[in-house]
Amino acid sequence: MTHKSAFVQTLMERGHYYQATDLEALDAAALESERGGRALTGYIGYDCTAPSLHVGSLTQIMLMRRLQQCGGKPITLMGGGTTKVGDPSDKNEARPVLTQEVIDANKASIQTVFAKFLTFGDGPRDAIMVDNAQWLDEVKWLDMLREIGKHFTINKMIALDIVKRRLDQEVPITFLEFNYMLLQAYDFLELSRRYDCNLQMGGSDQWGNIVQGVELCRRVDERHVLGVTQPLLMNAAGQKMGKTANGAVWLNADMLSPFDYWQYWRNVDDADVEPLMKRMTDLPLDEIDRYAALGGSEINLAKIVLATETTALLHGREAAEAAKATAAAQFGGGGADAGLPVVNLASVPASLAALFVAAGLVESNGEAKRQAKGGGLRLNDKPVQDVTGPVPPELDKGQEIKLSLGKKRHLLVKLAG
């Protein structure tokens, strides 16, 4: 099927499209927006459950980036209100209830990443950032139930995948969580009224919530709004991406260094390079096709490009090139340790094993012993065989010490202050 709008065509070509409430209407609305008519204004919500988003959320940010690149207006909706409830989607247990102070701190930390991908301002197509606490904190419970409660049926709500899965597994879903879908639908209604928002975007796991919002806008205000989802970030083996053995791949540099972020993309499977280039970079499609055609060991060249381009978008070109140079020197046996992540220690650990644990390279002294026995640990590029020995005195003198786990994990440690 040929699509007339650049936005829908981009979604299709770059692997962002999964399903839409009305694809033909979306194509028409996007085309009108691209020709200077009514802006296609789309939003994605982000709850403030952690101090940083991770690469699973980055796919949603890239979706908003595509919208703005095609002449649409993105709305970044911070979930200062909905975080107090917690989205039950793709969860097998209730999220912990966070205090207002933690929510505010998380929100402030998360907000910093969006300006790296979107252009914010006062222009008609500039991105804006709003917080659903603006209306959810002020809403009166009985008034809200009278206005929107009658448009939701329990029959339909328990039939949604996000609820049905929990019920089928006999995992309790609280009334608090059950209300999340009402609040998300209400967000769309408010954004439609306040900002003429006519599109909600999200991952495929948000389909049920998005449909509820589309229906609510139609029933309450008789407005024809739209929804579109993209596939979740999965590798070729069908596994969710965004986590490593050391935890989530965070977007904030204070939670994951640019070097480690670069390394994550450098180490993806061969089969994932092409789809990730399409979704997570701005590289032209014909250039991506040339990289996809590489075979054998040459695919590593494409992985380096993927890692460098994704890192440049998030952390800047200088940090990306520095990570690339550091990795080249490390794998080639050279120096260039300046680009490695640095771990500041409060005190000198009692042993080498404790040093590797404190640096976060291993989980325990026992794991340090096993890694050393297998030749997996190095200190200043020299193999560590006995992890019961003392830490080199250079650390106590304020010097940096290089630690390595395997061939791909390197960092520097020093005493704080």
Q: Give the DSSP E fraction (strand runs of 2 or more residues).
A: 5-15%
Strand order of the largest sheet: 1-6-5-2-3-4
CATH first level of the largest domain: Alpha Beta
N/C terminus separation:
62 Å
Q: Please tell me the total number of domains.
A: 3
Q: Given the helix and strand composition, which structural class is it?
A: alpha/beta
Biggest sheet record: 6 strands, mixed
The general outline is globular
Strand segment tally: 13
Note the total helix count: 18
Query: Unreliable runs, pLDDT <50, ≥5 residues?
Result: none
- The CATH homologous superfamily of the largest domain corresponds to HUPs
Instruction: Assign the CATH architecture of the largest domain.
Output: 3-Layer(aba) Sandwich
Percent range of helical residues: 40-55%
Mean pLDDT: 87
Rounded to an integer in angstroms, the radius of gyration calculated over CA atoms is: 24 Å
What is the fold-level CATH name, i.e. the topology of the largest domain? Rossmann fold
Question: How does this structure look, described?
Answer:
With 417 residues, the chain is an alpha/beta fold. The chain folds into three domains: 6-230, HUPs (Rossmann fold), CATH 3.40.50; 257-335, Tyrosyl-Transfer RNA Synthetase (Orthogonal Bundle), CATH 1.10.240; 342-415, Structural Genomics Hypothetical 15.5 Kd Protein In mrcA-pckA Intergenic Region, Chain A, CATH 3.10.290.10. Helix content is 43%, strand content 13%. The chain has helices at 6-13, 23-34, 55-69, 100-110, 133-136, 141-148, 154-159, 161-168, 175-178, 180-195, 207-221, 258-266, 273-280, 285-292, 299-315, 317-331, 352-359, 365-373; strands at residues 19-20, 41-47, 73-79, 128-131, 199-203, 226-230, 243-244, 247-248, 342-345, 377-379, 382-383, 401-405, 409-415. A six-stranded mixed beta sheet has the order 1-6-5-2-3-4, sandwiched between helices. Strands 9-13-12-10-11 form a five-stranded mixed beta sheet. A two-stranded antiparallel sheet has the order 7-8. Strand 2 (41-47), helix 3 (55-69) and strand 3 (73-79) form a beta-alpha-beta unit. Helix 12 (258-266) runs antiparallel to helix 15 (299-315) and helix 15 packs antiparallel against helix 16 (317-331). The longest helix has 17 residues, at 299-315. Its main location: cytoplasm. Catalyzes the attachment of tyrosine to tRNA(Tyr) in a two-step reaction: tyrosine is first activated by ATP to form Tyr-AMP and then transferred to the acceptor end of tRNA(Tyr). A motif ('KMSKS' region) lies at residues 240-244. InterPro entries: aa-tRNA-synth_Ic, Rossmann-like_a/b/a_fold, S4_RNA-bd_sf, Tyr-tRNA-ligase, Tyr-tRNA-ligase_bac-type, Tyr-tRNA-ligase_bac_1. This is Tyrosine--tRNA ligase.
